[in-house]
Design a protein that fits this description.
0% helix, 4-stranded antiparallel β-sheet
Length: 58
C-alpha cells in the first residue's frame, strides 16, 4: 500500500484487541490494523489521527 496515499486520512476505530486496533480510514474506506500505545485509552466508534508512518494512532 502506498503510504503517501494515506496522508490526510482519519481513522475510525472498528475493533480493539491486545494493543492493536482495526480502523477504517476516512475518506478512502480502506481498513488497516494499527498498534496503539498502552498509556492511552481508545474507544470503538471514535475517530483519531494516524502517525506519519501510518502504524500508530495519535
Amino acid at each position: 500500500m502506498d503510504e503517501k496515499a494515506l496522508d490526510g486520512e482519519l481513522a475510525l476505530i472498528e475493533a480493539i484487541m491486545f494493543g492493536v486496533v482495526q480502523v477504517k480510514l476516512i475518506p478512502s474506506n480502506k481498513r488497516l490494523k494499527l498498534f496503539i500505545p498502552s498509556d492511552r485509552k481508545y474507544e470503538v466508534g471514535k475517530i483519531y489521527s494516524i502517525s506519519n508512518d501510518h502504524q500508530y494512532l495519535m
